[in-house]
Amino acid sequence: PTGTPTTPQTTHREVPHSAQTQATHLLASLQATTPQIPHSTDRIHSTELPIDDSEASETSKFVADCTNTIQIPHGSKGSAVSCTMLSISRSGQKLFKDQMPGTSCSAIAACLSQIAVGTIDGTVQLYGTSPTIGWKSGVAFRSHPPFVFGRPIVSVKLHDSRSPEGVRLTQLLVVAADGSFGVYTLEPALKLSYKGTIMPPMSHMLLASDLAGGVHFDTNTTYGQWKTHFDAFSASPQSRSAQNGGNGNQGNEASVGVGGSLQA
After folding, report:
1. Which of 189, 173, 193 lies closest to 262 in space, CA to CA?
2. pLDDT band with cut points at 50, 70 and 90 for residue 63
3. pLDDT tens digits for 110-145?
4. Distances (CA, A) of 8 to 5, 11, 14
5. Which residue of 14, 38, 227, 240 lies most exposed, with the fewest beta carbons within 10 A?
6. Please, are residues 72 and 83 in contact by the beta-carbon 8 Å criterion?
7. Measured between alpha carbons, how far is 150 from 164 in angstroms, rounded to an integer?
């Protein structure tokens, strides 16, 4: 046969996206526009370990360090991964070490009986120590299962106090990158005291500054202002009354979980 060969024509038919694909695109667009609080990317995080001893000298300070590295995990023959190493030292001498493979530390805090380590994978590890001599023992152990928040940890804070009956109260504040926070009572019994999110007021401040065309507030500034007010609120008598179920609500347990509006 003679003549010019013809190129076969193909028709493209639009295949409708499935509901799951549409939900994935929607979630991705929301994550791209939702403001996030930046977490720390420092290589080393340090905090001094408090000691319940009035005669403790400057040379007897105990320090907890979290060092972020890329190395082969202990006991493994695989490839190098991100690891964070928690160590307790005194006068430069390391007394305790514990490795957390596959993640990096983004926040650390300590009180008389606990160390809290927040990581970029959204978990908080808690370490306890000797109930009699505290951090002077130079040792620590994982005292609780990991707290999973699902977003990088921006800030952790531990606070010690005593009830009128002399019972030690240890509280933990955790703030994640998406603005969710939780205030937990660790001692004498583990429970959630408050939960909520700081993102709505932060977003409101950012929007107000943009509309006014004046001073610009970034997420670091608004988070710092929120944390200052929250610390003052946590130390107020009204806060302690609410934690104890004030106004005749003794015995009401807080809802568990992280996120949503402030609840108690």
Report:
1. 193
2. very high
3. 999 999 999 999 999 999 999 889 999 999 999 999
4. 9, 10, 20
5. 14
6. no
7. 36
